[in-house]
Amino acid sequence: MTTYKLAVAGGGSTYTPGIIRSLMDRLEDLPLSEIRFYDIDGERQSKVVVAAKAVIAEYTDTIQVVETTDPKTAFEDVDFVFAQMRVGKYAMRELDEKIPLSHNVVGQETCGPGGLAYGLRTIFPMVELVDYVDQYAKKNAWIVNYSNPASIVAEGVRKLRPNARILNICDMPVATMRNMAAILGVNREDLVVDYFGLNHFGWFTKVEVNGVDRLSELREHVYQHGLLTEDVSKIDYRHADSSWIKTFKNIKLIMDHFPEYLPNPYLQYYLFPDYIVETSNKEYTRANEVMDGREKTLFETVRKYEETGILEDAFAVGVHGTFIVDVTISLAQNLGRRYLVMLENNGTIPNLPADAMIEVPALITSNGPIPEYVGEIPYFYKAMIDQQLASEKILVEAITEGSYIKALQAFTLNKTIPSAKVAKAVLDDLIEANKEYWPTLA
Ligand code: NAD
Ligand code: LMR
Q1: Residue 364: CB partners within 8 Å, gap ≥ 6?
Q2: DSSP 19-39
Q3: Which of 3, 195, 233, 294 could form a disulfide with 33 if both were Cys (CB 3.0 to 4.6 A apart)?
Q4: Is residue 38 within 8 Å of residue 7, measured between CB atoms?
Q5: Mean pLDDT score of the chain, rounded to an integer?
Q6: How far apart are CA 240 and CA 72, in angstroms?
Q7: Could you tell me if 331 and 167 are in contact, meaning their C-beta atoms sit under 8 angstroms apart?
Q8: Which distant-in-sequence residues (6+ apart) come within 8 Å of 138 by Cβ?
């Protein structure tokens, strides 16, 4: 039996215990001999690994567990790397959200100026990770990447390390499908969807179950309730937080204006930035909600487990944990299963640039994703995507060239920012806040 060695980069992530449970649930499909946890913050990681080990112990005692801050120890000879790093951690996420809001601009982790700021922090550490994996891991090793902002990370790595074996994925499309399935009363796995766009910037154009169209039914539901069931407990606990409930309700707002397709929830930030700012609490953002919720619960659970030996949070898997393991099994076993992932366009959507990193359905094989042909997309969606793509591509040029003007162009082109004047004010504040992380922009 083939067994695999897997490394988790960003081992100190709040998602680690849930992802480990998902791996343990699927050991028959993805047998593991070793799991290595790697993080630049060894102290944080150590606490999270206590929880991860407790989860592993519920299933097996045959997997060797290593925790390290040394890249060679982490990646030598591994088959898979799950990347989930948050460069600057929650302290910087909070600033990404609050600085733009102080200028009455959307303050969000991956969308708008906050996303651009997070991108400028993350590209070089991701390239460094790709180089570590190239240097130490098995020749055919895959990085499966969840690290945000995924669109910008995908573009940065495409540009700087074009031959990297990295598959960029996001749980938002599957989370959206989880809600669709709960509304329709079917299993998520039974939905067949078509989708096109960029990461956090796309649309479902088809939703079928057993060959029958269900998009019209969803549309009717969304007109009443947004993309939510009455029983919110049917969705993962992460997305049961009040900010996410609001986001799924806002699908109604989007579809009241544009009923054609079912949007990725993150489109609310680009289509209704004024409304989002008006309804945001500038003093208490999603970063605060996560620090007071998921992060606090995790560290409390670990503390109590160390005191009592009882693991109070079972770390339910949810779509986040399920999806990365599903995709990896398809990579490992060459199953060719169909998932929505990011990949280089190369004609999949002929009226978008060939070198755009798009998010579309693809068959996942051991050699990577094979996209399904999408065809030309209508002008409205193309125009929106072209603008967003330009913002992200110019941002990557800004960091590789160290160019302030290009950073300003990227901010100005972002649809969440009303003018070049505001773009400059927000950028200048973010430069100050990110001194420790960004290269000099001159
Ligand atoms: P977290 O802050 O709890 O954990 C991230 C960890 O990354 C921290 O322990 C930190 O020390 C570590 N880290 C930072 N820089 C690193 C580097 N250069 N090398 C190795 N480790 C590094 O964050 P979280 O909320 O658990 O999220 C983890 C990541 O997953 C984030 O990038 C987040 O945006 C992303 N995420 C993606 C999706 C998706 O579907 N794409 C969904 C949720 C979260
Ligand atoms: C998170 O921290 O959970 C995110 O990465 C996405 C969200 O829920 O804000």
Answers
A1: 167, 327, 330, 331, 335, 336, 337, 338, 339, 341
A2: HHHHHHHTTTTS-EEEEEEE-
A3: 3
A4: yes
A5: 96
A6: 39
A7: yes
A8: 77, 78, 79
Give the pairing type, strands 357-365 and 368-371: antiparallel
Measured from the Cα of 84, ligand 1's closest atom is 29
CA distances from 323 to 9, 91, 151, 156, 243 (A): 17, 27, 18, 23, 22
- In angstroms, rounded to a whole number, what is the distance separating the alpha carbons of residues 187 and 272? 31
Instruction: Note every long-range contact of 398-406, with CB atoms under 8 Å and residues 24 or more positions apart, other chains counting.
Output: 398/120, 398/441, 399/119, 399/120, 399/123, 399/124, 399/156, 399/438, 399/439, 400/159, 400/160, 402/439, 402/440, 402/441, 402/442, 403/441, 403/442, 404/441, 404/442
Pick from 114, 120, 127: nearest CA to 83: 127
- The answer to whether the beta carbons of residues 425 and 113 sit under 8 Å apart is no
In the predicted structure, residue 1 carries a pLDDT above the cut 90? no
Predicted pLDDT of residue 351 = 98
Q: How far is the C-alpha of 347 from the C-alpha of 356, rounded, in Å? A: 10
Q: How far apart are CA 438 and CA 51, in angstroms?
A: 33
CA dist 181 and 198 (Å) reads: 23
Cβ of 40 closer than 6 Å to ligand 1, yes or no, is yes
A 10 A CB-CB count for 256 gives 10
What is the structure's pLDDT at 235?
Answer: 74
Closest CA to 271 of 408, 99, 106: 106
State the distance from the centre of ligand 2 to the C-alpha of 338, rounded, in angstroms.
25
Atom 6 (ligand 2) nearest CA: 109
Kindly state if the Cβ of 145 falls inside 6 Å of ligand 1. no
State the helix-helix crossing angle for 215-225 and 242-257, rounded to 10 degrees: 110
Residue appearing with tokens 């397709």: 261
Residue 313 has pLDDT above 90, yes or no: no
Q: Are 105 and 420 in contact (CB under 8 A)?
A: no
Q: How many residues does the chain have?
A: 442
Beta carbons within 10 angstroms of residue 225's beta carbon: 15
Which among 204, 198, 197, 232 is positioned nearest to 219, based on CA atoms?
A: 204
pLDDT, residue 238, reads 75
